[in-house]
Design a protein that fits this description.
221 residues, mainly alpha, 10 helices
Amino acid sequence: MNGSWTLEDLLPFEPRVYWRLFALENEALWPAQPVLLAAGAALLLCFLLGKRPSGRWLGPALGAAWVWTGWHFVALRYGTVNWAAPALAWGFYAEGALLAALGLAGRLGLERRGRSAWPGAGLLAAALFVWPLLAVLDGRPWREAEIAAVAPDPTAIAALGLLALAPRSRWTALLCVLPALWLAVSALTLFAMGAWQGWAVLAALLAGLAAQTGTPAKGPG
């Protein structure tokens, strides 16, 4: 009996089953994806034009994306192949509630000051426009594309990007913890699958953490 084991031995599903989950999710939610991409592009354009969308709607909107993704994809969809997924979804619910509360309290909005501004915008752009392309680059169909507010990885990356653009406070630092933890778990899962996308997730995680160390923008908290 071979006593050694690898990360792959811990996976309760095959890679093709995992990727199929995104196809099923996209089919169930179509045509929401173009609307979500357009909304994200409009938000990014506002930043590039120097405008600052109000955190009083940005926080609840991002929070709703976290709660929805946690429930509909992580708990219901991913939960069919991974027994731990419903427990992981509670992290999404907590993050969503905190984001909404921070926004409604006026502590979350886009800032253009500080060294973290452009890395944050880059993370947001990657979540919106690069992550959907990974499926095609991997030789898989478009229907398996990962879309922010539908799939968890780009949702977490977008959150790190937006938090890097927000006024720095202990609350924004706290809100980075759960997205970072999810991306770490996702990277390990992808590495266990032998998927090169694990490196992309790891790079986004490191970039997201680095973006939080930029010069703080003045803000409440």
